[in-house]
Amino acid sequence: MEKVHKLLAKDKKSVAELNKEEAAAELEYLAAEIARADNAYYQNDAPDLTDAEYDLLKHRNAEIEKLFPDLVRADSPSKRVGSEVLSKFGKIEHRFPMLSLGDVFSLDEVDDFVMSVKRFLNTPENITFMAEPKIDGLSFSARYENGIFVSGATRGDGVTGEDITANLKTIKQLPLKLPHGVPDILEVRGEVYMAKNDFFALNEKALAEHTKIFANPRNAAAGSLRQLDARITAERNLSIWAYTWGEVSSRQWQTQEEFFIKLKEWGFPVNPLNKLCSTLDEIEDNFQHIMEIRADLPYDIDGVVYKVNSIDLQNRLGFLTRTPRWAIAHKFPAEQALTRIVNIRVQVGRTGALTPVADLEPVNVGGVIVSHATLHNEDEIARKDIRIGDMVVVQRAGDVIPQIVEVKLDKRPAEAKPFVFPNVCPECGAHAIREENEAIRRCTGGLTCPAQAKERLKHFVSKDAFDIVGFGDKVVEEFFAEGILHNPADIFTLEERNKNNADDLFAHNTDKGLELEKRNGWGKLSVNNLFAAINQRRQITLPRFIYALGIPQVGSATALLLAKNYGSFDALQKDMCAKETAKLVAIDGIGGEMAKDIAEFFGEEHNLKVIAELRQYVEVENYVNDEVTDSLLSGKTVVFTGTLTSLTRGEAKALAQRFGAKVAGSVSSHTDFVVVGADAGSKAKKAAELGITILSEDDFIQMTR
Ligand code: IVH
Fold this sequence. Notes:
There is one protein chain. Strand 4 (138-145) and strand 5 form a beta hairpin. Helices cover 36% and strands 20% of the residues. The model has no long low-confidence stretch (mean pLDDT 88). By secondary structure, the chain is of the alpha+beta class. Bound molecules: 2-(butylsulfanyl)adenosine. 2-(butylsulfanyl)adenosine binds at residues 99-101, 132, 134-135, 139, 155, 191, 243-244, 305, 324, 327, 329. The site of 2-(butylsulfanyl)adenosine (IVH) has 15 residues, from strand 3, strand 8 and strand 11.
């Protein structure tokens, strides 16, 4: 320290007075002193120089180097500041690919993941997972050879990344030299991020200097790291968390937990929130906790990552194409982002409902690129005063269609244009009418409207309806556009119509058939697969058939209610055609408006025609009620906790419901049974305290026998 002070003293020689020898000696001294100060500051969290002193040393070093460029040392502190400006990034091929993670959005899906891990490993034992905050930054890979940092790369496409060696070097948290004893070859991987306060400071500066404003810390981190001029990276405060590895010459750890201990020893920042969890309850509690503290963390996270702790088990589990089987990302529910509305257009649904849709400048909302959002109806547009050209906040939660939360009025451009809702159908030109007390305007074109006909077909073949594999939206669009398909019954005559009658030399019929296999993108195999998928559905359950008809307001749940209450399609149709709606409205769960829609549907001639035609080809099964109404579980409230071994949470829930139980998420005085799996935590404890009957998984299964 004394030496430092001497150096910083006023009477020190000016740089111009130094001779070469003195300059070299001072550079050597400065390199050591600055490295020591860096170490004290970044690795030990115990700075022993003030910022001003530190800056003076760096400045002195730079001045000497300017005058004696040939004396610049390999370990010079100025090398931390990339000085070369590149014209483009070089490429680095990852020896081990940098994979991504599968996403899930609910605890049930995490449970399914845990079950799938166990099933794959064929073990009833509990698996321990490392739960880590999912850092919202960008991943890096840093390669060390004999303990020295030699190169760094972005993830790129997972196989080849960009060479960001110079940029990574400027991140002070990244050690450039590792202690003795590390593997000769070691790639440490993790996330580069910008802390929230650094992000705000950067944007404030940008505002004052009229330079680029970043939308969020992630963008700022990416924009700062991927700089061809690494001096710019050096000016930005970037941070890292290390969490995995790539190539290693000899692995010295058996678990993810041990790896973190090593990383810390080697001087890498490791997130203190990483936590081992052995039960689903621990996973849930940890997720809740992380959600609660999320807003107060100094950096952005977008979920929690679970990794099988044991590396041996990880190796046994291996990989799917692009993601490991041993890890998954549990994402936080709703995500928001700011973007601009570039257009508003109106879509026509299968019941003729006109839905306004906003086309957006594509934006990343919680890891998914969003370019459309629903605007619901014309009142919604008026209520939020949404105009074309507006900047808006879009929100996405799980799989639902993205929505617009608010308009940023202070960002409204002068040319923003109000949207005039059409009163004719944009697809067929028929009048679009909005009934009194209705929020939605509808096209009156019925099945003469091509959009409605097409949407009905898409609905008909969809997953919860006829579920015809390979008959996606694209196929419907294609066949409909070419007049091969008009209504659902046409699907079941496709194979017959496709037959090449010209094979029969003596036939007068010269019809060549549809020749589907000769179409672009089709072949004999795909056509035959399609026919096979169609033929599998010539027999169908009653709820699916009712749902597939696309009766307004009738979703899967209502279709099931109708099936249960009528038992056969004939019974339903008979009542409806006789305008007997008394039974309908008496069903718990079917209101007056819905009953009106159902009756109206059967009142339309063309609907009856389509149904009659369909039933020539399709057998509709009668509904057999397999719900058990007098079981030990009927009317009871059940809570599941801990890891179940022979059922997934989803299966257990469905089973309980079939036996008449309600399934709840938390234990209260209203709970009747708590089914306790392996290693249950707080819920089992609470159940015991409240004196609630506790069942083992086997007890529960017995009750459903
Ligand atoms: S592990 C094979 N751990 O999430 C597993 N990734 O969706 C490789 N991420 O590309 C990744 N925090 O950029 C892992 N604690 C964490 C993470 C994390 C953030 C990012 C990473 C990765 C992406 C996958």
